[in-house]
Amino acid sequence: MDKALQQHRAAIDAIDDEMLKLVNARAMHAQAIGALKGGGLIYRPEREAQVLRRVKENNPGPLSGESVARLFREIMSACLALEKPLKVAYLGPEGTFSQAAAIKHFGHAAHTEGCASIDDVFRNVEAGTVDYGVVPVENSTGGAVGTTLDLLLEAPLKVCGEVDLRVHQFLLRKPGTMAKAVKVYSHAQSLAQCHEWLNQHLPGAERIPVVSNTKAAKLASEDENAAAIAGEAAAEVYGLEKVAQNIEDEPNNTTRFLVIALHDAAPSGRDKTSLVLSSKNQPGAVYELLAPFARFGVSMSKLESRPSRTGLWEYMFFVDVEGHHQDEKVAQALAELRDKAAFLKILGSYPAAVL
């Protein structure tokens, strides 16, 4: 057995040495590409999506496609940082799901910067103090994030990516606390996501919404009578004990985040386009807005209405369709929509989430 172990370990060492050479060779090519660009955009969402799709499709195993893609995500992140570490704003403070989404999309080599509000994320991206922002747009349990939708309508920014993040909620307490919690801090959406669990396990506890789950964790770390609902990262930041895990009511609880920038992405071959529009005030107007997608064979994956704030009972419709706005069928549908809609804004085209 000892001899067999040594043979395997020697083989692993040799493979590691070869991998080290190849990873650095890749980094040198990435640097050369950066020099050829001459200071232009170093992060190309469509190119990175194509690379990650290719490694997943070509992966022979035994590692899963997801695992391989995450490894390459970090390699690409480190290569980008050789040219210039990306600055990415998220809804802070440290330890939020928004930060986890930013790291999932850009890798650990990016510099993530927490903001006090979603509005601040948009402002920082617009001002150019950061390269990108990551903002929550909808949750599979809690629904749409209205603030993000409203800001997408108003801001002169583009959507250039999306991130799907599986959200696991934990009940966190100050270590050594024995008494049952009499109050539970968390973000309003997280409280909603754990509603039934709280009814069953902490029916008498006061539920107190706060600005973020990380803020909830901080408050719980200072109060022996309190608990927090937050993610695992928040427990590590504030040294809290994980009393219960995966307490979300919906086992497939997922939050979708959008990546915002001053630019969108070129076609990657598997894209989405987000837009917002409003209908004319006449019978059948909403039907007329949706008809071009059906007529040109464009699949619609989302339709969300929001009050327009310009008139009573007037609404804006947020729509996601499959395909890039440069694709022929999508372009034809959008051209027809421009004649039918009272208002139309293309929020951006971007690669569909790979990880």
Q: Helicity, in percent?
A: 40-55%
Low-confidence stretches: none
Tally the helices: 12
Backbone shape: globular
Structural class: alpha/beta
Query: What is the makeup of the main sheet?
Result: 6 strands, mixed
CA-atom Rg in angstroms: 23 Å
Mean pLDDT: 93
Q: What is the CATH homologous superfamily assignment of the largest domain?
A: Periplasmic binding protein-like II
CATH fold-level topology of the largest domain: D-Maltodextrin-Binding Protein, domain 2
Total number of strands: 15
CATH architecture descriptor name of the largest domain: 3-Layer(aba) Sandwich
CATH class of the largest domain: Alpha Beta
When the domains are counted, the total is 4
Distance between the termini: 39 Å
> Which range does the strand content fall in?
25-35%
**Series of secondary-structure elements, N-terminal to C-terminal:** HHHEHEHEEHEEEHHEHEHEEEHEEHE
Layout of strands and helices, then pairs:
Elements: H1 2-37, H2 45-58, H3 65-83, E1 87-91, H4 97-106, E2 111-115, H5 118-127, E3 132-139, E4 143-144, H6 146-154, E5 158-166, E6 170-173, E7 183-187, H7 188-193, H8 195-201, E8 206-210, H9 213-221, E9 226-230, H10 232-238, E10 241-245, E11 254-261, E12 271-278, H11 285-295, E13 300-307, E14 315-322, H12 328-340, E15 343-351
Parallel strand pairs: 1-2, 1-3, 7-8, 7-9
Antiparallel strand pairs: 3-4, 3-11, 5-11, 6-9, 6-10, 12-14, 12-15, 13-14
